[in-house]
Amino acid sequence: MTSRPILPFAALVLSLLASCTADLHGNPSADGPANSGGGTAGPGTSHDPPGKLGVTRQSVADACEKRNGELGVGLTKLRRLSVAEFNNTVSSLFDAEYVDYKAELPDDEPMGPFVSNQTLAVRSQEARQYSRVAQAVADNVLESGTGFLGCSLPAGMDTTCIEQFVVRLAPLAFRRPLEPDEQTRLLDIYALGRDGIEGTEPNPGAGLHLLIRAIVGSPDLLYVVDRNVHGDASEVPALADAHTLVARLSLAFWNAPPDEELQQLAASGEIHEEVVYRAQVERLLDDERAQSNLARIFAQLTGVDELEEKEKDPLLFPQFTPELVEEMLAEQSAFVRSVVFEADSRWSTLLTTNYQEISPGLAELYGALASPDGSEVSLPEGQRQGLFTQAAYLSAHNKPAETSPVHLGINIREAILCETMLPPPANIDTTLPEVSGEIRTSRERFAAHETGPCKNCHQLIDPIGLAFENYDAIGAYRLTDNGAEIDPTGQIIDGQGGPDGPWFTGALELSQQLAESQQVHDCVSRQLLRATINRQESVLDACSALSVIESFDASDGNLRQLLSEIAHSESFKHVLLNPPGNTP
Amino acid sequence: MSHSRSLHGFSRRNLLKALGLSAGFAPLLPLLNASAQDTAAKGPKRLLLLYSPDGIPAADWNKSIDWKPSGSETDFTLHDIHSPLEPFKSRLVIPWGMEMTVAGAGEAHAHGMAGCWTASRLKGPGNGADFDGGNGNRTGWGSGPSIDQVIAQNFGPEMPYRVAPDHANQETRFRTLELGVESGNPSSLNRMIYRGDDQPLNPEDDPKRAFDTIFSGVSPSGGEPTVDLAAAQRAKEELALLDIDRASLNKIRTKIGRLDFDKIDRHLEALLEMEQGLNAPPGGAESLACSIPDAGGGNFPTKVRSMIDIVAATFSCDLTRVMSLQLSHGFSDIAHGAWAAGSGNIGHHTYAHDGNEDTVPQIAIDKWYCTQVAYLLERLDAIPEGEGTVLDNTLVCWGRELGNTAHQFYDYPGIMMGGAALGLRTGRFLNVKDKGHVQWLVSIANLMGLPISSFGNIEPDSGGLALG
Q1: pLDDT band at B18 (very low <50, low <70, confident <90, very high)
Q2: By three-state DSSP, how is residue B330 classified?
Q3: B355 closest CA partner among A280, A432, A466
Q4: For A457-475, how does the pLDDT look when each residue is reduced to its tens digit (9 = 90+)?
Q5: How far apart are CA B89 and CA B91, in angstroms?
């Protein structure tokens, strides 16, 4: 392959990056130049000090301004469907109830707080798993009859119904039109299964079973193959072709394959018309599937998706049952849905209000108060506000028997401030003093972090984590710890060790600051961009990221508009299959 | 039907490169292997890599338990942690004092995991791989093949396999099997077996699924092979599905960016391996003592037992000759209280160094793992083969991702078991203080018939241990 000269725009962002300022996200890029994320910036963090962000944003804005229509789009990687996408695909193909095949499928690869199966190859272990899952799907689907065919399965050698089925189903499964040779192969597979052992009666049911295995187990269903309108693998970004575009939309917003309406708009090419595209984005976001999808993304972002695997000390927290965990998860999910799709959709609302319907187990945990006639319960004043004071979040990050201000502090820093916290230096004694005598609260035990080599990082982590000390390991409110009064005051510290905001008291005031923080707004925009384009943005996506961040600001932190803006961004609508020019 | 065989996997040249040998060394490989043993009579050479999490218990940073056996080379007493292995003392080789040859991104658990069988660096994030390598430290994947894969991809009369991995007639149904119990999601802290740079292999974690995959169609010893028309039809269907998938992959390959070609080529390779498996001898009837276990489910200890039973049965049915079994994963925080007496209710890693440092429960956990290892040896030793047992033909190597739980790499608790028929003089404890554990890996390869003197990308030309 001949190497082209590096594109002026790419050269511009790359040169800006070299000066450590152009990556307005301060994050290691997935396909940009080597940046190990090992941190060169401020102490304990690989993020640029927040104070430099303004300058950084301006330089990116200038670069985007000056590029004369040249597109900036990060490299599109071949990826496999996630477990959830696979499940939704099966359920939508066969109009069947949702079945979770998680236990049978290869585990998803983590991508930050999210998942994206784009680094590992399918080996024989995984190939066997996919083959077995396809078999299980065929078994399950056929168990409840052949209604999904849309015609009746013929008894003998007639294949009319099967042909109709293949022509309708395979394009939905493969998210693109079926090619003639592919149709022939699928019908051959059907015939092989139907004919069975020589000398026996033809068995259309067996043929259909094998056909379903072939479609569900197909690499064409498994791999998300993105194409541009020219059908080439160019080193220059180009508009995504119609089928790629609708697949991106439905996978991003529904976590499921395109429905027939999207397929038709792709087939006719109308999806490339601005008005049609805009209307479809809104239609998708109005759908219930967009709500469950966003709730899933927030569960991942806040680390709550791992709550079901967490254990708590059964002696200290006998009430921490699977049922209570379910209530916790339901609260977060319903809260995110109601704020984003029913209330004002603001990020700040998500951090400063509460979900109104309190389930029985949580009412007990939260010490909710019943109204005199017992018909309503309400939360005690001043104890909870927003996502980070909910039991799901607190239980997901605290330890089995005690709280963990360090894990909470790290999670806030990483998930919504987009910083990477570095590990303690090698061979350092990380033992905290035991609770005894004068040392009773976590803050008193953590005093050891305030000196020596611990200080650089823990001054960033601890004040945030200790703000949550008014909640125990499963999120119940408390005023004392081991008999001593809890002091939940603190201040967010920046990478230079200076204050990054006024003093706060407790998680409520901290949440208020996080709701308003510019760095948090930038980070949340970026996190949703990643979850939606299914990859880490690279420097080449800088202009898209900037437009998304700016629109999030302009809308006063409106999450629904953010999703819509992402769908209209360059990075979402374009494909780049090979790295530009001389980029390695 | 077209059978595409566009393999871009493990060419001989790449192998030599990975091993740090020049192409000039190539002709030597077959020559060195000239003295073939009579596999049929003695049983094939086999390798099992075994992993359990964390290192030797440490009470505090810099104060780990010295697990050195007491006594002389051939007359020694095992440290209490290893006491469950006492009945097998004559079958062990304990090289004490090795320092792990590991390096790279992530904290110790992460690069210890990536390096324990590869002696290669763990890379920083890149190519879309970006994982928590412990305490928020980001990593990518490991950078070199693990020793079991190198051994399995090679071949020769003195090796587990006599034919090349792409040979149409494979000797066993599976070239290698990777098994695990609660090994965690695919990220750097959870993977130890690598086919090559950036190519971790996921272990099969589910005993029932492992059982179905490995033993489908296998008949226990004594069963008469019958002409089964239904089975023949099933095989025909499976091959047709593989063909249709191959056609799809070849088409996908024409549509994607060049950096993604590898993924498709590896997937094609996997389909070929599945096809070889379908064509390989079914195992069982012709083997000496093939018995098929019940596949259990249940909690961690039940699954561990089931997987050990499956390992023993897989070897006894000669379904593969190179296997790994990964129990839990780096940073493991399983609470063992319910089945390991005295190990408390707190997670393994939390006891090690997360504010609850305590060696008593850690020792109880380690001894529990050691008891499982003893059970494995018992099972392998119960299957007669040739003039001895399967254990004599199988080199079992037990490793961890750390030297001790204080994140240090010295005094690595790597232990060799069985393998007497491979020429290993067992029943010995060797003081190899400060030798790199890469030398141990080189020695493992040498015992399996692969004459290398260098391995991995951290410490070249290390040579092996003097095992005598």
Answers
A1: very low
A2: coil
A3: A432
A4: 899 999 999 999 999 999 9
A5: 5
β-strand partners of B327: B181
B301-341 tens-digit pLDDT:
989 999 999 999 999 889 999 999 999 999 888 889 888 88
If one counts every other C-beta atom within 10 angstroms of the C-beta of residue A375, the result is: 7
Contact predicate A216/A173, CB 8 Å:
yes
Strands B415-418 and B92-96: antiparallel
B387 burial via Cβ count (<10 Å: 0-12, 13-18, 19+): exposed
Cα angle B162-B163-B169, degrees, rounded to a multiple of 5: 125
How far apart (Å, rounded) are the C-alpha atoms in residues A360 and A382? 20
Distance CA A430, CA A449 (A): 9
> What share of chain B has pLDDT > 90, as a percent?
59
Given a contact cutoff of 8 angstroms between Cβ atoms, the answer to whether B287 and B140 are in contact is: no
CA–CA separation, A480 vs A468, rounded Å? Answer: 12
- The span from the first CA to the last CA of chain A, in angstroms, equals 13
**Contact by Cβ (8 Å): B138, B249:** no
Q: What is the pTM of this model?
A: 0.77
What's the ipTM?
Answer: 0.88
To test the contact with chain B by mutation, choose from A36, A45, A120 the residue with the greatest count of B C-beta atoms within 10 A, namely A120
Distance, in Å, from the CA atom of A554 to the CA atom of A318, rounded to the nearest integer, reads 47
- In this structure, of A203-212, A294-303, B5-14, the range with the lowest mean pLDDT score is B5-14
Is a pLDDT exceeding 90 seen at residue B211?
Answer: no
Taking CB atoms and an 8 Å cutoff, what residues of chain A touch B108? 426
Q: Is residue A522 within a helix (H) or strand (E), and if so which, with residue range? A: helix A518-533
Determine the longest span between alpha carbons in chain B, in angstroms.
Answer: 65
- Which of these, A419, A420, A421, A416, lies nearest to A524 by C-alpha position? A416
8 A C-beta contact, residue B162 and residue B229? no
Query: Is the Cβ pair B252, A225 closer than 8 Å?
Result: yes
Q: Could you read off the pLDDT of B417-440 as tens digits, one per residue? A: 999 999 999 999 999 999 999 999
Count of CB contacts below 8 A, A vs B?
A: 213
Residues 236-265 of A with CB under 8 A from B: none
**Residue A581 burial (CB count, 10 A):** 14
Amino acid at B28: L
A227 touches chain B (CB under 8 A): yes
In angstroms, rounded to a whole number, what is the distance separating the alpha carbons of residues B462 and A33? 33
Q: What is the pLDDT of residues A318-331, one digit of tens each?
A: 999 999 999 999 99
Q: Which long-range contacts (CB under 8 A, 24 or more apart) does A60-65 make?
A: A60/A13, A60/A16, A60/A22, A60/A24, A60/A542, A60/A543, A60/A546, A61/A546, A63/A9, A63/A12, A63/A13, A63/A16, A63/A22, A63/A542, A63/A543, A64/A542, A64/A543, A64/A546
User: What pLDDT does residue A6 have?
Assistant: 41
- Whether the CB-CB separation of A108 and A115 falls below 8 Å is answered with yes
Contact between residue B393 and residue B298 where contact means Cβ atoms under 8 Å apart: no
Q: At what angle do helices A559-567 and A518-533 cross, to 10 degrees?
A: 50
Residue of B nearest to A196 (CA): B233
Interface of A with B in 344-383 (CB under 8 A): none
Nearest CA in chain A to B253: A225
How much is the pLDDT for B289?
60
Question: Which tokens hold the place of A155?
Answer: 């008894």
Nearest Cβ partner for B201 among A104, A125, A185: A125
**Which DSSP letter does residue A341 get?**
I
Neighbours of B6 (CB within 10 A): 13
> What is the C-alpha separation between B51 and B325, in angstroms, rounded?
6
